[in-house]
Amino acid sequence: MSSQRLDELLRHPSVWCAAGTRNGPKTLPTGFGRLDERLPGGGWPLDTLIELLLPAPGVGELELLVPAMRAFGHAGSGSRRWIAWLAPPYLPYAPALANAGLDPGRMLVVRPRGLSPQGTVPSSRGLRPGWRGSPRRGLRRGLYPQGTVPSSQSSSQSVESPDPTLWAMEQALRSRACAAALGWSDAAETTALRRLKLAAEEGGSLGILFRPAQRAREPSPAALRLLLEPRDGALDVTILKCRGGTPGRVEGVVRGEP
Predict the structure, then answer these.
(1) Are 35 and 197 in contact (CB under 8 A)?
(2) In terms of DSSP bridges, do strands 234-242 and 224-231 run parallel, antiparallel, or are they unpaired?
(3) Does 11 reside within a domain?
(4) What is the structure's pLDDT at 162?
(5) Which residues neighbour 33 within 8 Å (Cβ) at sequence distance 6 or greater?
(6) Phi/psi of residue 241, each to 5°?
(7) Is 211 among the domain residues?
(8) What's this model's pTM, rounded to 2 decimal places?
(9) Which of 86, 112, 137, 229 supports an S-S bond with 183, CB 3.0-4.6 Å?
(10) Structural domain of 52
C-alpha cells in the first residue's frame, strides 16, 4: 500500500489513532473535572452511543448529564435541535428542567405503546438531603414529580416494533433533528445496539442508553460504558469500557452542583 493511500485511510473519521489526537473523536466536557480527566478528549464522546448502567432509576444519572444537556442548548451547539427522551421511567418535570438551566420546550418525550410512567420517586432511590435549598438542587427529586402522573400529561408518540424503545431511539438519532436521544431499555440485542451506534454516527447525535447494572458483564458496541453506583450521598462511576482509554473508577463524581 502506498504512503499516500495510507494517509487517506488514516484521515478517515471512522479511524481512531492511539498515537495521535489530530483525528481524535469529538467530545463534550461532562462538567465534572475528575471524570473528564479519565475520559479521552476530556469528556463525553459525541456522535456515538454511550451506556449508563444503573442499579435503579434515580441514582444521580440525570445530574451527571445536566451540564451536557445544557451545553446542547447553547448557540453553536445544535441549539434548536431536540433532546429526545425515550420511555423514561418517570415523567420529566418541566419546572425542575427549567431550574437546571434546560429548555423544557426542546425536550421531546416519546412513550412507546404499552409503556407508562411509574409516576413516583421512592425515597430509597438515592434522594439525598444535600440537594435542598437552591432551585437547581433537588434535581433528582424535582425532575420527576411526586405522586401519580396521569398518562394524559405526557406528550407521547406511539410506535409499534418488537423493541419499540430502541426503534424510536434509532429514528431520533438518525433524524438529525435531535442533539441527543436518551433511552431506557432492558433490551440486550447486540444488533440493535449496533444500529443505535450507527444511527448516532450518521445523524450527528449523542445516544445515551440507560440499562440495568446486571448488563454490565455483557458485550456491547457502545463507545463508552459507565456503571453508576450511589454511595454516601454521592455517585461513584466505574468506567467499564472506553474507546481510546482504559477502565477505571472515579468516586464521588456527583456531589452538590457541578
Answers:
(1) no
(2) antiparallel
(3) no
(4) 63
(5) none
(6) -150, 135
(7) yes
(8) 0.74
(9) 86
(10) 25-250
